[in-house]
Amino acid sequence: MNLSGHGTRRPGFSARLKLTLSYVGFLALAGALLLAVVWVYLLRYVPDNSQGLLGISPNRYLLVHTFAPAAAVAMAFLLVFGLVGGWILAGRMLAPLTRITEAARRAGDGSLSHRIRMRGRQDEFRELSDAFDSMLEQLESHVAEQRRFAANASHELRTPLAISRTLIDVAREDPTRDRGELIERLYVVNTRAIDLTEALLLLSRGDRGQFSREGVDLSLLAEEAAETLLPLAERRRITLDVTGGPARTQGSAELLSRMVTNLVQNAVVHNLPAGGTVTVHTEVYGDTSVLRVENTGPPLPAELVPTLTEPFRRGAERVRTDEHAGVGLGLAIVHSVVRAHGGALDLVPRPDGGLLVTVRLPGAP
Question: Is the CB of residue 297 less than 8 Å from the CB of residue 278?
């Protein structure tokens, strides 16, 4: 992206010169109108004879020849004054625009950290400057987030591929090794790579917001997710409850189902070693459909909670523990799906440990 405009702008007058010429034109027009008023309302009533008015005043001929040189000098002075003053005024008025243009050129060259921070009274240029600074801040944050995501995704995808290559090298170098064990390990690693790829595609689909919309009941999705994850909860000796009533919204049934499943699975996996609880509640509040997923678990620092929706993050560590550890995109996908559906996602740590996740989506009849 090239924002500098070098070599692409058509030749022509600059904005400063155009403003200067406009000032001169207005001054010249005002002077001409003034002379016309003098002629119409003064000189035309002066007698044009040798005696003048009452024999004591000069006649029109003398007045015209006396007034015309002075008027010409005054007009010339107005034009020069308009050129110089207009050039100075236009430069002062366009100075903020020059700073904004320079910031745009820096942004086009890849420098998003520069800020204009224009001071002075709150005029149109100040508003434009503040809006441009805000845009640069959002762009810088978005680019940094994308770079972190790309680096983490590359690392996550590289790891299973490297493990697969190592296993293949072992099989080639040691033909006597148990092939069944190698095949099983390859299957697990390959499954993880596929899951990661599908999660990345799902995350990208949610970010684009390109999906068909239909009526979806969050309470039915919650029941389906609970039924699917009940065996996992029983193995971990966790009580899983679904409460509330219908909560309808408009959106993609597939994406919303994945959102609910991810929330319930995270609540089950990140819980107490035994005797924990997970409560899934749905309700309608005004014109908003609400989904709450609350679980017990270890205490979470308040400053850590906002980072949980970042890709490849879980708590304070990167994800890599047991067979249910996932790929670290669970809450990132949830956040992406909620945002794509015009909703809001709130994560609040419970005082006794665990997390309360609240999803608010636009309601539907």
Answer: no
Tell me the CB-side half-sphere exposure of residue 194, using CA atoms within 13 A: 6
pTM summary value: 0.57
Minimal CA–CA distance to 47: which of 36, 58, 31, 38? Answer: 58
Confirm if 362 and 342 have CB atoms less than 8 A apart.
Answer: yes
Task: Specify whether the CB–CB gap between 53 and 46 falls below 8 A.
Answer: yes
Q: Per-residue pLDDT tens for 154-208?
A: 766 776 777 788 878 877 887 777 777 778 888 877 877 787 777 677 666 666 6
Residue 280 φ/ψ, nearest 5 degrees: -110, 125
Q: Are 354 and 295 in contact (CB under 8 A)?
A: yes
CA distances from 62 to 41, 43, 59, 66, 208 (A): 17, 11, 6, 6, 82
The answer to whether 229 and 268 are in contact (CB under 8 A) is yes
Q: How far apart are CA 282 and CA 289, in angstroms?
A: 8
Q: How far apart are CA 9 and CA 53, in angstroms?
A: 63
Alpha-carbon gap, residue 111 to 98, rounded angstroms: 17
Mean pLDDT score of the chain, rounded to an integer? 78
Please check whether residue 258 is in contact with residue 198, taking contact to mean a CB–CB distance below 8 angstroms: no
Q: Is-contact 47 55, C-beta < 8 A?
A: no
